[in-house]
C-alpha cells in the first residue's frame, strides 16, 4: 500500500515538474504571448495551456497548439467550458475592501463588489437598483474609464475625498449632485490597475461573494436572484 502511494505521489510530482518546464519553455519560445499556467489535461500527452482567461492545448514540446473544446462524451460534459468558468471566477476575499466605498444595507449578510464609473449611464441606472437591495454589503470600487469619460477621474476622486463617501457617490449618480470633496490620497488609480488585472474593462461589473461576474444595469429583483444563487 505504501509503495502504491509513493508511486502515485511520484507520478503527480513528475507531472507537475513537466508542466512547469513546459510553461517555462512556452514563455521563452513565445514571449509576446501571456501564458498563465500549464496543466495536465484528460488527454494523454496533451497539456492544457492557460492564457489569461483563454485555454488551448499543446503537446509535451509546445510545438503544436489545438484551439477548441474538449468534450467528455461519456458524461456529456464540456471540459473546456467548465475550466473557462473556473478561470473567470474571482477570489472575492482577496479584493482590497479598503479601496472601496462600503454600503451595509439591512443585515449586510450577502456580499457583492461593483466596479463603477461615475459618468457611465448604465452605472447610474444600476445605482438606483443597488439602493433598493436589502441584507447586502456592497463594496463599490470607483473605476473611471477616463478614455470614454474625461471628467470621471476627477469626480471619482472628489467623491472619495468627501466627508460622506457613500452618500456623495449616490448623490452624484442618482441625483446628479456634484461632490464637494477636493483632492486627497485616494485608491482610484489602484482600482483601475486592479480591474485590469482581473480582466475587467467595462462598467458596471458586479462580482458575487463566490466569484461570479455579471455586468450591466440589472434590476433589483434580478440582483436578488443572482446573489441568492451562491455556488
Write the layout of secondary structure elements.
Layout: H1 2-29, E1 37-40, E2 46-51, E3 54-59, E4 65-66, E5 71-72, E6 77-78, H2 79-88, E7 101-105, E8 110-116, H3 121-130, E9 136-142, H4 152-160, H5 165-175, H6 188-197, E10 205-208, E11 213-215, H7 220-228
Can you offer a commentary on this structure?
The model is unreliable at 2-10 (pLDDT under 50). The chain is built from seven helices and eleven strands. Helices cover 38% and strands 21% of the residues. The protein is elongated. With 231 residues, it is of the alpha+beta class. A five-stranded mixed beta sheet has the order 7-9-8-10-11. It has a four-stranded antiparallel beta sheet with strand order 1-2-3-4. The two termini are 36 Å apart.
Strand content: 15-25%
Q: Name the structural class.
A: alpha+beta
Helix content: 25-40%
Average pLDDT over all residues? 90
Major pleated sheet: 5 strands, mixed
Distance between the termini: 36 Å
How does the overall form come out from the CA principal axes? elongated
Contiguous runs where pLDDT drops below 50 for at least 5 residues: 2-10
Strand arrangement in the largest pleated sheet: 7-9-8-10-11
Radius of gyration: 22 Å
Question: What is the string of SSEs from the N terminus onward?
Answer: HEEEEEEHEEHEHHHEEH
* Tally of helical runs: 7
Give me the count of strands: 11
Amino acid at each position: 500500500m505504501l509503495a502504491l502511494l509513493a508511486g502515485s505521489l511520484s507520478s503527480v510530482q513528475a507531472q507537475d515538474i513537466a508542466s512547469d518546464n513546459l510553461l517555462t519553455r512556452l514563455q521563452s519560445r513565445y514571449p509576446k504571448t501571456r501564458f498563465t499556467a500549464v496543466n495536465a489535461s484528460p488527454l494523454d500527452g496533451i497539456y492544457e495551456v492557460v492564457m489569461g482567461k483563454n485555454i488551448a492545448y499543446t503537446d509535451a514540446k509546445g510545438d503544436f497548439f489545438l484551439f477548441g473544446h474538449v468534450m467528455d462524451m461519456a458524461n456529456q460534459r464540456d471540459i473546456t467550458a467548465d475550466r473557462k468558468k473556473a478561470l473567470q471566477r474571482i477570489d472575492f476575499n482577496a479584493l482590497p475592501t479598503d479601496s472601496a466605498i462600503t454600503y451595509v444595507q439591512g443585515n449586510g449578510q450577502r456580499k457583492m463588489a461593483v466596479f463603477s464609473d461615475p459618468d457611465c449611464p448604465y452605472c447610474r441606472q444600476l445605482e438606483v437598483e443597488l439602493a433598493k437591495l436589502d441584507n447586502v454589503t456592497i463594496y463599490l470600487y470607483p473605476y473611471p474609464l477616463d478614455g470614454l469619460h474625461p471628467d470621471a477621474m476627477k469626480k471619482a476622486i472628489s467623491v472619495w475625498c468627501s466627508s460622506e463617501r457613500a452618500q456623495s457617490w449616490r448623490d452624484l449618480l442618482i441625483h446628479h449632485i456634484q461632490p464637494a470633496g477636493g483632492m486627497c490620497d485616494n485608491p482610484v488609480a489602484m482600482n483601475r490597475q486592479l480591474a485590469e488585472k482581473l480582466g475587467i474593462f467595462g462598467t458596471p461589473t458586479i462580482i458575487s461573494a463566490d466569484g461570479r461576474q455579471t455586468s450591466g444595469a440589472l434590476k433589483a429583483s434580478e440582483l436578488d436572484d443572482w446573489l441568492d444563487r451562491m455556488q
